[in-house]
Design goal:
Cytochrome Bc1 Complex, Chain D, domain 2, 2 strands, disordered N terminus, mainly alpha
């Protein structure tokens, strides 16, 4: 333990000194294959969304199988993060109450971010294991449950960026 702490201190001192080493002697550069295997982040405009589509009905089935054990059968129970808010844009603003539940429908600024997060980080026990169709479908179900799309709306690379999230106007873009 002491050796590990000492090693970390040496690294911290080396990082803050003017005589930084070019290489610390551990790790390696990622291969092109490893880099290609990690999907790029999807920006708000949807650039880079993959082909495919999903529906609310498909998402209901997929959510029940792969998400409900952590987020509850309807997305409101947990035990982990609540995904479906009991309110949407018409509720009391967050800065005026501490009791409002922050969830996808009333807090996230972009629908493309929902897709991106699910694709890269879920399910918790196997991140990145969902197919693009499963991610589109789960996204559709969550947007529907948050009253942001209707039951027949098909989510794909063209329609997902058009979904306007109620909290979008509450975020400020910074170039810093």
């Amino acid at each position: 333990m002491f050796k590990h702490i000492l090693y970390c201190c040496v690294l911290i001192i080396a990082c803050h000194s003017e005589n930084k080493p070019d290489h610390f002697g551990f790790g390696r550069a990622a291969t092109q294959q490893e880099i290609a295997a990690v999907p790029a982040a999807i920006p708000p405009d949807g650039t880079g969304l993959p082909p495919g589509q999903g529906t609310v009905s498909e998402g209901s089935v997929c959510y029940a199988a792969k998400c409900a054990s952590c987020h509850g059968n309807t997305g409101t129970e947990g035990p982990f993060n609540v995904l479906v808010a009991p309110d949407t844009a018409n509720a009391i603003p967050f800065d005026q109450t501490v009791f409002r539940v922050k969830a996808i429908g009333n807090y996230w600024p972009y629908a493309t971010t929902v897709f991106d997060y699910i694709r890269r980080a879920m399910p918790f026990n196997a991140p990145g294991s969902l197919t693009d169709q499963e991610v589109y479908s789960i996204t559709a179900w969550l947007l529907y449950r948050n009253q942001l799309i209707n039951e027949n709306f098909v989510i794909n690379a063209h329609t997902l960026p058009t979904v306007v999230m109620p909290a979008r106007s509450k975020y400020v873009v910074s170039d810093n």
